[in-house]
Amino acid sequence: xxxxxxxxxxxxVGGGQAGLSVSYHLKQRGIDHLVFEKRSAAHSWETQRWxxxxxxxxxWQCDLPGHPYDGPEPDGFMRKDEIVAYLKAFVTKVNxxxxxxxxxxxxxxxxxxxxxxxxxEGDYTxxxxxxxxxxxxxPIIPRMAERLPGSITxxxxxxxxxxxxxxxxxxxxxxxxxxxAQIAEDLHLAGRPVHxxxxxxxxxxxxxRGRDVxxxxxxxxxxxxxxxxxxxxxxxxxxxxHYVTGRDGGRDIDLRRFASEGMRLYGVLEDYRDGSLHFRDxxxxxxxxxxxxxxxxxxxxxxxxxxxxIDAPAQAxxxxxxxxxxxxxxxxxxxxxxxxxxxxxxxTPDFRWLDASVFNGAGSPKHRRGVTSEEGVYFIGLPWLNxxxxxxxxxxxxxxxxxxxxxQKRLSAERFVLKRAV
Length: 422
Description:
The protein is an alpha/beta fold. The protein contains 8 helices and 22 strands. It has 2 domains: 205 residues, FAD/NAD(P)-binding domain, CATH 3.50.50.60; 205 residues, FAD/NAD(P)-binding domain, CATH 3.50.50.60. The strands form 6 sheets. Strands 1, 2, 5, 6, 7, 8, 21 and 22 form an 8-stranded mixed beta sheet that branches. The protein has a 5-stranded parallel beta sheet with strand order 10-19-11-12-15. This is FAD-dependent pyridine nucleotide-disulphide oxidoreductase.
């Protein structure tokens, strides 16, 4: 005889900082729930980051609910082991009702209005579903990778740990977003010959006019700007993050300087065929555009300083330290010493387990501040869910509180209707 599925008012799918933040606010309101985590809390931070990984935002921005950063370096940048410790302390503080090692395989609306929640340990039902699994699920590796010689070691950025992991020889890093730029730097500092296929990621300064740029932007209210107020509106969610680093106390990442020190830069990698890597003729444009963004942010800070009469040391805007020569659009692989490739071109979301009419044509959820058009379905922890910090430690707690407030109102209304019906 098959037993009835266990019912929980709220099912939270994902046990990272987003799901834990939701659990914190649900517990504060006495709302029964379960958090389903297919691996373990803090798993991705512990197992999918390289050894020298650190935050690119200062520690003072880490403000999970009831768990602000309280360490000795508020203006520093937590390293990988410190981030994991910070999150594990949050898990202990929240003490969530979490089912670790349990994967949610399907969620769908039943005829009675409840959600069916199928998991690797059995079936549940729920009134509300909070998707807190993030948007970085499937590593992007292009089909051209299949045509590279078998002698070439290929890994994705989430598999990279350190330079010694790769075979002796030169390394091709594909992509210059945050991960690609930092991994290229990690290899470069270790003395490995690096080839970098540069994309269109912007960059920003680490420090400008005596302060961290993040601190200036916080004072300027940038991190309080909502997606509805942003000039790009929903389009800002597709933006690539600026590359910068918190390594060794924080510094700029300047690809031009790397090139002047021997790193080989190319445009976007478009294909591998006939034994050659083929690159787009766009390196100069990409570098120039990244510098325009860099100087544009600094100019906005200059304006803020002037308008508010702030005493801050003057600083010149960036001028290029290296210029590319004749563009290289074709590189015979056999004529290089490249023995490994690190793909740093991102991830795609995978919400196939959620059977709900809440997605656009690209498979991304449609929502307003995490609340979708389908009653009872919510998202949390996505980039620019509401503000710049929505996918980070800084604002995910506020987003979670908002979603939980909506959930509480819905559950209270449902109970009122049921009470009257009785």
